[in-house]
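Researcher: Structure for this, please.
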Amino acid sequence: IDDEDKDGDTPPDDKEGDKPTLNLTATDALAIEGVANDVVIFQVAQTNESNSDTVANFKLTLNELEVADITSVKITDGDGTVTTLTTAAEIQALVDTGVSLTIDANSSQTPTVEITPVDDSIYEISEAFGSVITTSSDVNLGTDTAVAAIDDEDKDGDTPPDDKEGDKPTLNLT
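Model: Predicted structure, token format:
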């Protein structure tokens, strides 16, 4: 039995009607420094199950962020295996070479990558960063980038925060 044609041609000229599309999203695109358990979460998902494993290479793109701004990265593969990166070298490798994330055959698994920010005292207001996926699997590549940000904490500790001035320096003249 063949898959249907992707665009409904009769007679069919392909068999890609059910071919999955792989997408990257930032399911939680904002983390606030100093707020417990506040992380950025990127998720890889595909639109349909496949009869073969789908492997995506996930890379972090720093933009305004620096490796020193990240406390840890928690990578949860499709099968639930968790790997936590905590050293600067490990996090830099995620930027330079990335990590393989697998969605097992015949499943709707959604691998995730969680970024925990450092609560530093540097006044940055907001630092934008992102991620990108590539694949050589037999799937269509849909949304291959996602963006996120880490904001400075609120100066008064308000929840939800109404400013990003927790690290704003004060100038005293005497």
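Researcher: Any notable elements?
Model: The longest strand covers residues 126-135. The mean pLDDT is 84.
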